């Protein structure tokens, strides 16, 4: 075979191939990405679509968590003070069941119980951001109204769910019907019964003790609810270790989801820190 | 008496050979030039008294050194290369319309679902409702933009097709002209080679544009497409024409009245047609199916709920389906209170947002979720480009090897020409010396009688 005079062409194409490789390497270096256009690695690009959607979903979940946690926190602290108030009513009832009290003393206790009932009404009709927290989804009007001494619930039983992780939702409200006026555990009824038992001169200590137990029964749902709210939602796939969290890893891992502030209970923040 | 004519023929042969060498050297860098060499033959001998005397050298002609099989292979590979190059160029344009990161349809789809999640935290908030509507608007315009740009890529390909057909016609006319000229020139005459070179060059150029079959019949060549539509026959060229095909809305190619659009598979034209008539329409269809499916799923989820006024939800997007769905996608409501977030008519309920969000995980197009269907489009356009690139690289390498082989047959090597130059220079000198020797002998003979 004769020596090809075409040799310069081959050198040229080798040089241009080298140039191209250099350009690709530089592009990868400056963008920090191996796949800059879909043709660099089509299946990786397709995965990137899914991953970048997941990653921005995470950001949204964290935003949602922080906005619902403010509302949950309000509800939670309201319920906590409600629980304290009910406990106070119970101790008033226990005190009233003591046979040595005079009717005047019992009347004084009854007044206190009535003021607790009003306090509970304030809690049950708590509004946050213009919405009544314990009205179910009929949250544009106060859930409890008093007409002729009778307390009526005019909210509904619907619970709103917010997705805080792919496929996982959290209840963001608790209807008053499950907290303050559950079947057999109506806060207002039991408090007014207790006050009536204390006021009535014919009530025996047993009557007062029974009325106190009625109030005790109401404590249960309210306390349970407060506990639920203390559980901290945090999307599992948004944890620092979740693979390919490109965006999330832009800031130090220890500052990430926790700082977005979803400590709805607001209690014992130090306890969480130990986990990070 | 051949005493003078023998060395004279040597002088002739050597000088003709020198001119061939000079021509080779002059065309060292001419693209498509095929090296030439003189073909020398012994002249017919004279027989006298049973003894044969040589009568010198005869110049048969000048031949071009070409390898027709290699030329054929190069032509085929050039078609393949032209096809891949055009296809890759076209699909690379389409590829930019389907980004995989934080822009484009995929991004807008997840933005929309995120805005729903955001609204679910406070379903009666008008600002959040408005942001859902704007996210829906961005989603619709992302679909509109991508669909329109995809059409724009297609129509620019359509223009490319027309231009290429024009180039094909020009080249076939030139080839027919060369066929005419070559018919009048003997294959041994000087200059024949350069006409053939020109014609080969044109055929190769043509191979880069369209698939060509070459039939060599002596001095003239016949060119047809692979499917047999005539391009050049003898001194006659057959122009291709284009006309708008009303059914597909693009230019179709006709050869003497017959639609040959579907037959063309090679060269630039083949690549343009593959992208224009196959890959891009398939992507358009998928994009439309995604848009139509998404709109339908979101509308039916929206209709299950109630708006802020307690009325049942209407259409969230104007209903679209089939061809053109992506290009005409639009949000149907502008009033944020009409967004049906509630599942029971109360303003505080966010129940229906869960129905709308669930569409993100529903099969809306060919059994795929919205994000999945978009990721599939990204994958398809990406692999179209990367497959095209692989083919292009392979053709480039193959073509380079073939051209190298061809160059080793037909290329001009300066070393070889230099040594040949010396060779014929010496031959010329020797022949001249022979003439002067004969001259001296004659002088001796003439002076013999004068009694010197």
Task: Furnish the topology, listing elements before pairings.
The complex is a heterodimer of chains A (276) and B (452).
Chain A lengths: L6 H25 L10 H55 L6 H22 L2 E2 L2 E2 L11 E4 L2 E4 L7 E5 L2 E4 L4 H4 L1 E2 L2 E2 H13 L5 H25 L26 H4 L9 H5 L3
Antiparallel strand pairs in A: 1-2, 3-4, 5-6, 7-8
Helix pairs in contact in A: 2-3, 2-6, 3-5, 5-6
Chain B lengths: L4 H22 L9 E7 L3 E3 L2 E3 L3 E8 L3 H28 L8 H17 L5 H58 L8 H18 L3 E5 L2 E5 L5 E4 L2 E2 L2 E6 L4 E6 L2 E2 L7 H37 L21 H4 L22 H8 L11 H41 L3 H35 L4
Antiparallel strand pairs in B: 1-4, 2-3, 5-6, 6-7, 7-8, 9-10, 10-11
Helix pairs in contact in B: 1-10, 2-5, 2-6, 2-9, 3-4, 3-8, 3-9, 4-5, 4-6, 5-6, 6-8, 6-9
Structure characterization notes:
- Chain A is mainly alpha-helical and 276 residues long.
- The C terminus of chain A is likely disordered.
- With 452 residues, chain B is an alpha+beta fold.
- Chain B folds into 2 domains: 102 residues, no CATH class; 331 residues, no CATH class.
- Chain B has 10 helices and 11 strands.
- In chain B, the strands form 4 sheets. Chain B has a 4-stranded antiparallel sheet, covered by helices on one side. A 3-stranded antiparallel sheet of chain B has the order 9-10-11, with helices on one face.
- In chain B, β5 and β6 form a beta hairpin.
- In chain B, α3 runs antiparallel to α8 and α4 packs antiparallel against α6.
- Classes of the chains: A mainly alpha (276), B alpha+beta (452).
- Chains A and B meet through α1, α2 and β5 of A and α3, α8, α9 and α10 of B.
